[in-house]
């Protein structure tokens, strides 16, 4: 038997400790590939939806076992409701029925690479142990000090990661991640965060925000976060360090403190580098250097002309007007506040009067671009892009509102509904997909992407390029951190994402 207890004691991890019941030589060949869970344990979960969804898209073979007359119908209905019944199977076994016989036809994983999670000893544990399965107990009621235990069923992902770590050795890296559930669920469904080792030897573990974070962070090799999902508040008061204006959730604050105390730990990406993306005034400062970078001899790649305004009274009104018309007015903070996505297209000076966009703000030139925005994604050393339908040219939006001069401004929420082209009778034009007119200089923008990555010191970035009608200037109108990159092929983006994490760890290790 192989004893992992010392490993966890050394890491002071109170969440779980266990030993392996099979030889390490078997695990070195293949990691854990299947998990059988006692159905009664599901009641321990803080969120059954999250647990079952994570299991379903973990790349593990997953089965729920109900014994001694337990009724599985409620869980079967939930699996259907979550649309994961295809990936999480359910089996019921009578008191006198052999468990192995019951699951044999639908269990393709070798015993030595299978884990049974139970609440206590019983007939199923006896049978599976004798057949070479790994046994993991969940809960505090296990009498044996030698038993492999986790505190509750939600710890199973961390336990599996440690089992796989022992199977693969130091080459396997454990990635602990924290992000809002809707984003994690999207990534899970795309098989981006598997519990089974990836092709480049990574496994992913959700960090539990309902538990002390420090001990969990000790047990991972890479910390992956989407801190922009965890912004609690933002102050408009200017500070010497712009990052201090942003207040994050307790879990992100814990990450920040942990990294300060453990500078050798790999984090993707450093949280203190996000301010230039979150604060549009800082983004503006960064992008103002873009044109001078001369990334192309033939194509102009630049930022939009813009000014910052504290209000829309004089003298700031004159500054706003100096940008020209039309303009697009954006709040200073790009995310983290309820009105971060409230914007306005202003067609004339009168449009600035009582404009319903929170101040301070950035006033940018509105670039006519034929309703096509190019979404670029920087994923480590890879740059990918797609074309998406966007806002129309300004003349199409400035339709008459009953006055002789047309509307002075158009306010909208960019997350809910983008302005669309209108016909003379006010009807929306058909929402056709725009493919672009072939004027995009991909090579020039890819060079700009390399420049931006180095400038920001970040490894996962998204930015938008529009090609100006007439001049063909390539204008970088928006930058964001850790986009979903769902517009590009998963076959390209996901391996690039995994490689980025692996390379970040290698770079951090080499520098410490």
Automatic annotation (TrEMBL):
Cofactor field: Mg(2+)
A GO biological process held by the record: inositol trisphosphate metabolic process
MF GO annotations: ATP binding; inositol-1,3,4-trisphosphate 5-kinase activity; inositol-1,3,4-trisphosphate 6-kinase activity; inositol-3,4,5,6-tetrakisphosphate 1-kinase activity; magnesium ion binding
Residues of the Inositol 1,3,4-trisphosphate 5/6-kinase ATP-grasp domain: 300-492
Coiled-coil blocks: none
Family annotation (Pfam families): Ins134_P3_kin, Ins134_P3_kin_N
Keyword annotations: ATP-binding, Kinase, Magnesium, Metal-binding, Nucleotide-binding, Transferase
Binding partners and assembly: Monomer.
Homology family: Belongs to the ITPK1 family.
Name by which UniProt lists this protein: Uncharacterized protein
Organism for this UniProt entry: Physcomitrium patens (Spreading-leaved earth moss)
Species classification: Eukaryota, Viridiplantae, Streptophyta, Embryophyta, Bryophyta
């Amino acid at each position: 038997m192989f004893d992992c207890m010392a490993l966890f004691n050394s890491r002071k991890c109170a969440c779980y400790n266990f030993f392996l019941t099979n030889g390490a030589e078997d695990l070195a060949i293949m990691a854990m590939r299947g998990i059988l869970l006692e159905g009664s344990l599901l009641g321990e979960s803080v969120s059954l939806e999250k647990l079952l969804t994570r299991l379903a898209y973990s790349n593990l073979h997953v089965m729920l076992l109900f014994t001694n007359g337990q009724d599985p119908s409620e869980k079967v209905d939930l699996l259907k409701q979550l649309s994961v019944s295809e990936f999480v199977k359910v089996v019921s076994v009578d008191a006198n029925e052999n468990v192995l016989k019951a699951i044999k036809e639908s269990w393709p994983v070798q015993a030595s690479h299978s884990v049974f999670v139970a609440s206590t000893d019983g007939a199923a544990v006896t049978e599976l142990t004798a057949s070479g399965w790994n046994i993991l107990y969940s809960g505090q009621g296990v009498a044996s000090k030698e038993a492999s235990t986790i505190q509750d069923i939600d710890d199973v992902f961390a336990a599996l990661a440690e089992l796989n770590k022992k199977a693969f050795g130091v080459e396997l890296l454990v990635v602990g991640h924290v992000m809002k559930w809707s984003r994690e669920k999207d990534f899970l469904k795309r098989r981006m965060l598997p519990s089974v080792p990836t092709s480049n030897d990574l496994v992913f573990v959700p960090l539990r925000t309902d538990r002390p974070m420090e001990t969990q962070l000790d047990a991972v090799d890479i910390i992956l976060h989407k801190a922009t999902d965890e912004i609690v508040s933002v102050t408009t008061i200017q500070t010497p360090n712009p990052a201090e204006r942003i207040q994050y959730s307790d879990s992100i604050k814990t990450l920040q403190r942990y990294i300060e105390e453990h500078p050798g730990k790999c984090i993707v990406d450093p949280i203190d580098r996000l301010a230039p993306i979150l604060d549009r005034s800082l983004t503006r400062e960064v992008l103002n250097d873009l044109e001078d970078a001369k990334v192309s001899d033939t194509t102009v790649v630049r930022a939009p002309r813009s000014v910052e305004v504290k209000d829309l009274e004089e003298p700031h009104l004159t500054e706003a007007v100096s940008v020209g018309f039309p303009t697009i007015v954006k709040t200073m903070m790009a995310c983290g506040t309820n009105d971060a996505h409230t914007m306005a297209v202003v067609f004339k000076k009168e449009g600035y009067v009582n404009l319903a966009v929170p101040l301070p703000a950035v006033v940018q030139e509105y670039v006519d671009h034929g309703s096509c925005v190019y979404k670029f994604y920087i994923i480590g050393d890879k740059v990918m892009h797609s074309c998406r339908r966007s806002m129309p040219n300004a003349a199409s939006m400035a339709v008459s509102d009953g006055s002789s001069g047309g509307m002075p401004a158009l306010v909208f929420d960019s997350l809910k509904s983008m302005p669309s082209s209108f016909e003379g009778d006010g009807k929306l034009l058909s929402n056709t997909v725009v493919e672009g007119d072939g004027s995009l200089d991909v090579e020039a923008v890819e060079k700009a992407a390399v420049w931006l990555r180095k400038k920001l010191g970040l490894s996962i970035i998204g930015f938008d390029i529009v090609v100006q009608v007439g001049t063909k200037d390539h204008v970088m109108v928006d930058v964001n951190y850790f986009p979903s990159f769902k517009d590009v092929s998963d076959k390209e983006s996901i391996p690039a994402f995994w490689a980025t994490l692996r390379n970040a760890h290698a770079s951090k290790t080499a520098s410490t």
